[in-house]
C-alpha cells in the first residue's frame, strides 16, 4: 500500500509516496487499497491512537551486517524489506542493493538468492530507513 493522500498535520513524517508497512502491528505489505481502508477504519472506530510503520524516502546508505542474521520479506512492487533488526539494519528498512546486486523490483526469491550467493560472512546492503510514526485518529 502506497500513501497518495495525506491529510492533517504529520510534522513531515507521513507523506505522499511513502509505503504503509504495518497498522497496529498488522502486516500491510501486500494489502490492496480496500484492505488497507478496512483496517484503518477499524482502528479509527475503536481507538484514539494507532501506530503505523511507514517506509518513507530517505537518503540511501550502505550497511554491513552478518549475512546469517538478515531476514527478508516483501518483493516486486513493494520492494525488498528487512523483516527483523540485524546490526544497523532495522525492521522495515527498504533494501535496494545486496552485495552489488540491484534488488529494486526483484522478487523475494531473487533477493534471497542474491543474499545467499556470497560466501562472505558479512552482507553489504544499500538501504533506505523505515520510519515508525504515531498518528492520532480523532
From TrEMBL:
User: Which PROSITE patterns does the UniProt record give?
Assistant: PDZ (PS50106)
Give TM segment ranges: none
Please give the superkingdom of this protein's source: Eukaryota
**A cellular-component GO term for this protein:** plasma membrane
UniProt-listed InterPro entries: MAGUK_Signaling_Regulators, PDZ, PDZ_sf
Which residue numbers delimit the PDZ domain? 82-130
User: GO biological process: what's one of them?
Assistant: negative regulation of hippo signaling
PANTHER family found in the cross-reference section: DISKS LARGE HOMOLOG 5
Query: Mind telling me what this protein is named?
Result: PDZ domain-containing protein
The species this protein belongs to is Heterorhabditis bacteriophora
